[in-house]
């Protein structure tokens, strides 16, 4: 197991425009479950490959338990990596595939067999141990890839690069839940790369949100939802994402274009740059009191409804309580405790 730290880490590909990874300092604690979350091209796979040793960063250092491993190749970092597409030996049985890393390390047959059977049980592969891998589906093959990382008790970290890409949608929830349970039983540092917020938030204890090569927030799933530190986090986390309203500030009030005033739970000093008021749709609702709005449409999402609104010329999404008709003269109610102010896309702390 390893505590992984980055010391002024950055990376630029030769011939590329700018940094693929902007300078960062960060620590991933030993035995933690982390997710790297962001859209395609944000740098998350580059960062994972730097951790594994497949890429050497152009600046900064990678530390495992305080030791500088920046120049060490993958095989000397003692990490296991699970890729988007399962890598298995089709001519081998499931048992032989799982035992392969142990055999390479010279583990005696009896303890290796016990370890393989234990991991197979955790993954739901116990009944398939003597089947050839070529006769299995993509989900079982990906479980084998997961198992080859878990079967080693000396691994420093297990790295997952979009591991559920090829898994049928109805099986993804099962595998995500199984991975979470596996981490509870096998306390090893796990780092999971995904663009899917559901995968990240259900797997990880802490989520690293990335945008355009920059780490914009590291936090628990609850912190990312309740207090996004960056506009991108508010937009990317949640479905629909956070509402952002252009505004001006006057002490403890936000003033929208057109003059509507919204009381804030905190006062703010004079701020420059682009000012916005942020609130999630879950904390805004239609009713008979509040700010006047125009209803554009209602989206029925099954267990809840979302009202798409026009508020002072700006788009806005709000919850519509189950069974409640759209008011003839709709008004928007905002939970004041859930209002946040952003200056140039970054959360600003007000004065109590």
Radius of gyration from the CA trace? Answer: 24 Å
- Can you count the beta strands? 22
Helix content: 10-25%
Tally of separate domains: 2
Distance between the termini: 42 Å
Do you know the CATH architecture of the largest domain? 3-Layer(aba) Sandwich
Q: DSSP strand (E) fraction? A: 25-35%
Class based on secondary structure composition and strand pairing: alpha+beta
* Low-confidence regions: none
**If you consult CATH, what is the topology of the largest domain?**
Rossmann fold
Biggest pleated sheet: 6 strands, mixed
Please identify which CATH superfamily of the largest domain we are dealing with: P-loop containing nucleotide triphosphate hydrolases
Mean pLDDT: 93
The tally of helices reads: 8
User: Which sequence of strands runs across the widest sheet?
Assistant: 6-7-8-3-9-10
What is the CATH first-level class name of the largest domain?
Answer: Alpha Beta
Keywords: ATP-binding, Cell membrane, Membrane, Nucleotide-binding, Transport
GO molecular function, one term: ATP binding
Protein name: ABC transporter ATP-binding protein
GO cellular component, one term: ATP-binding cassette (ABC) transporter complex, substrate-binding subunit-containing
